[in-house]
From TrEMBL:
<dbReference type="GO" id="GO:0020037">
    <property type="term" value="F:heme binding"/>
</dbReference>
<feature type="region of interest" description="Disordered">
    <location>
        <begin position="1"/>
        <end position="20"/>
    </location>
</feature>
<comment type="similarity">
    <text>Belongs to the cytochrome P450 family.</text>
</comment>
<dbReference type="GO" id="GO:0016705">
    <property type="term" value="F:oxidoreductase activity, acting on paired donors, with incorporation or reduction of molecular oxygen"/>
</dbReference>
<protein>
    <submittedName>
        <fullName>Cytochrome</fullName>
    </submittedName>
</protein>
<dbReference type="GO" id="GO:0004497">
    <property type="term" value="F:monooxygenase activity"/>
</dbReference>
<dbReference type="GO" id="GO:0005506">
    <property type="term" value="F:iron ion binding"/>
</dbReference>
<dbReference type="InterPro" id="IPR036396">
    <property type="entry name" value="Cyt_P450_sf"/>
</dbReference>
<dbReference type="InterPro" id="IPR002397">
    <property type="entry name" value="Cyt_P450_B"/>
</dbReference>
Length: 418
């Protein structure tokens, strides 16, 4: 899974110096915005941090700096085999699914990346957005029907996670229900956002095996789906390349979109600007979705980029092979772009879909918006008196520095007899 190289040694200037901040702990998990503010005060726009196992890296906090890193692939590239820390990384390191080199579009560079991303773009462009919205509404209605008679539901597990999962696997040509599909989704969650006791490396291996089976099925019997379009693309990707790129597509469509839905529902149910006005039309679901991308973006941090050569960033000396974590959530709330300390949702210049050549390929953000918007609007339409079943301060966030999502979103409403 990982090509670590054999002759790499950490340079003397790697960021493991005094003042490095562990990217862990309760403060980070529940109120990361406070930690970002303190990191900015102490370190500026680029902070020395420690990943799991005290592995050193840089956290890029500034909007301008994140934009610069993602726009200059010649300085900060995606091939993780450059990392100067590989000799210190154990085989069971929990972040291996993020950084262990794989022959996927995520780690390609230059012309090869443009070729691979182009195949994904063409395959996604084959999705009719009106049909996707209709399919999502059908999925939403089925999910709502499963709990509408009880008058209560835990919306993260029964709705926010379930809907984009079913939409994503359906887009790729898998049945959206069944034990096989559910196992795939569970393993994707573990590999991207492991809880204590989970084995993310083993989960990622199982994901690869299931997608490999899907590609074989579609090679034999192509259909009107993303997988088949990738297989038939004249670029001629190998089955292994398609497996790796499909994992990236499904993972991006499922977990971040689920948290986007959940975080938006939380905003609508807890902020009176929306709770009192959505039905009246003064503040729209679209505005809530956009505000969440600024303030509670589903992907808080992304690992990462690796310095191609010695350079400087935010007043820091970055050594060749250093790892940079993109602080997307911190950049979106950078006081340099919001000097009044008011983050508005008036524009969509956030970095939630990243930036530059390695940003989410078009039209993926539009498709995610269709899924999330349809999910939220359908739920509010079907259950107009939906309210939280707990006090807002009782809601808790998943213990993750990478994803921003609720552990649970309990709600109640008037039961509907079907």
């Amino acid at each position: 899974m990982t090509d670590t190289g054999s002759d790499l040694t950490p340079p003397p200037g790697c960021p493991a110096h005094q003042g490095s901040v562990p990217l862990a702990g309760l403060e980070y998990q529940q109120s990361p915005a406070q930690l970002y503010r303190s990191l900015r005060r102490e370190h500026g726009t680029v902070a020395p941090v420690l990943l799991d196992g005290d592995v050193p890296a840089w956290l890029v906090l500034g909007y301008t700096e994140v934009s610069y890193v993602t726009s200059h692939d010649e300085l900060f590239a995606r091939d993780s085999r450059r990392w100067n820390q590989w000799p210190a990384i154990p085989q069971d390191w929990p972040l291996l699914p993020f950084v262990g080199y794989q022959p996927s579009v995520l780690f390609t560079e230059g012309e090869e990346h443009r070729r691979r991303a182009g195949v994904i773009t063409q395959a996604l462009e084959g999705i009719d957005q009106f049909e996707l919205a209709r399919d999502c509404q059908i999925i939403a209605d089925r999910l709502i029907a499963s709990f509408v008679g009880s008058g209560q539901a835990e919306l993260m597990s029964s709705y926010a996670h379930a809907l984009p999962m079913r939409a994503a696997v359906q887009m790729c040509g898998m049945p959206h229900e069944g034990t096989d599909t559910q196992q795939l989704v569970d393993d994707l969650r573990i590999s991207l956002d492991a809880a204590e006791g989970d084995d993310p490396v083993a989960a990622y291996t199982r994901v690869g095996e299931r997608i490999q089976q899907l590609v074989k099925e579609k090679r034999d019997r192509p259909g009107p789906d993303v997988t088949s379009r990738m297989l038939l693309d004249p670029a001629g990707l190998t089955d292994e390349e398609i497996v790796q790129d499909l994992i990236s597509v499904i993972a991006a469509a499922q977990q971040p979109t689920a948290n986007w839905i959940g975080n938006t529902l939380r905003l609508l149910l807890t902020d009176e600007r929306f709770a009192l006005n959505v039905s009246g039309g003064r503040l729209s679901v679209g505005e809530a979705l956009n505000e969440v991308l600024w303030l509670d973006t589903p992907t808080q941090n992304f690992i990462g980029r690796w310095a191609v050569r010695d350079t400087q960033l935010g007043g820091r000396q970055i050594r060749a092979g250093d790892c940079l974590v993109l602080g997307l959530a911190a950049a979106n709330t950078d006081p340099q772009i919001w000097p009044e300390q008011h983050v508005g949702a008036e524009n969509s210049a956030h970095l939630s879909f990243s930036n530059g050549e390695h940003r989410c390929p078009y039209p993926a953000p539009l498709l995610a918006d269709v899924i999330a918007r349809t999910a939220v609007e359908t739920l509010l339409e079907r259950l107009p008196d939906l309210v939280l079943a707990v006090e807002p301060e009782e809601l808790t966030w998943r213990p993750s520095i990478w994803m921003r999502g609720l552990t649970a979103l309990p709600a109640q409403f008037t039961p509907v007899v079907q």
